[in-house]
């Protein structure tokens, strides 16, 4: 159901984009850009999706429950924050692992902390893109300010 | 990585290398996971898991295709120079809000977002707006939520995360302004 809603919304967005592009030449440019992007993204997508599914199989259910289940408290949120940056390979991996951990008994608060920490501090993004483009000082400033965000998100989410 | 090539209106996008360090790491992790699952549950189970993932991708592909098209078209519709000039001219709350919204709404991976953030800075945006843009993209990227997040997580969980993260880009921008101001006042 979620996937269907997302698909419909994105197709509407794509149709609007197509309409806005207006000229045949810009539409061609967008299509060839999309093809280049697909050539880059799809191999990663296939590899990462299969990897995420296999990693989910390896998750030890009892340990997930012990570390991230109800009653794990602040330790769970700190651990979830630490796991965010070291997750390899793109958004789908972090979401897939969060979904698998939820199925095995992790709390929603721990899952949201992990996803938020990945979004802000993924090492792949930091080292490959942020450091070269933004420089060390700007990156350090952003990291220092953003550090509490995953914990705050998790703490507030655990109230719900 | 769902990263878009860094594009601009006056130069053709450089061809990204399909196979790079990040992809090799991803491949190594996947192969290691496959080996471990095979050792633990047998090859049949590993294969069934991989095939299940492929089936899931097949369901997602239409959405991914539409998302890729929108991401590729945005630089044509909204040239980087235009976006960065607009945000660079605005200061105060307006600049922060505009930068946060641009970060959330502009599709594209880190290969598109960080060059744009650097361009914003060069176009005269202050550190607060620049970090609000990066944080808005990190936490609230609409494209990522529509393609990936909603494929894996329940919508009410996604809604809760977004509601909680909504003020974050503004807070980060304000904090960055406060910190750099203090440093400027303190230091000669």
How many strands of chain B? 0
Shape of chain B: elongated
**Interface with most residues:** A-B, 78 and 88 residues
What is the N-to-C succession of helices and strands of chain A?
A: HHHHHHHHH
What does it look like?
The complex is a heterodimer of chains A (160) and B (188). Chain A has helices at residues 2-21, 24-58, 61-68, 73-83, 90-103, 108-121, 123-134, 136-146, 149-157. By secondary structure, chain A is mainly α. In chain A, helix 4 packs across helix 9 and helix 7 (123-134) crosses helix 8 (136-146). The longest helix of chain A is centred in the first third of the chain and has 35 residues, at 24-58. The two termini of chain A are 24 Å apart. Helix content of chain B is 79%, strand content 0%. Chain B has 9 helices and no strands. In chain B, helix 4 runs parallel beside helix 6 and helix 6 (127-140) packs antiparallel against helix 9 (168-186). Residues 1-13 of chain B have low confidence and may be disordered. At the A-B interface, helix 1, helix 2, helix 5, helix 6 and helix 7 of A face helix 1, helix 2, helix 5, helix 6 and helix 7 of B.
Task: Supply database-style keywords.
heterodimer, A: 160 residues, mainly alpha, 9 helices, 84% helix, globular, B: 188 residues, 79% helix, 0% strand, elongated
Provide a brief overview of the structure.
With 160 residues, chain A is an all-alpha fold. Chain A has helices at 2-21, 24-58, 61-68, 73-83, 90-103, 108-121, 123-134, 136-146, 149-157. In chain A, helix 6 packs antiparallel against helix 9.
Topology of this structure?
The complex is a heterodimer of chains A (160) and B (188).
Chain A: H1 2-21, H2 24-58, H3 61-68, H4 73-83, H5 90-103, H6 108-121, H7 123-134, H8 136-146, H9 149-157
Chain B: H1 21-41, H2 43-77, H3 80-89, H4 92-105, H5 110-122, H6 127-140, H7 142-152, H8 155-165, H9 168-186
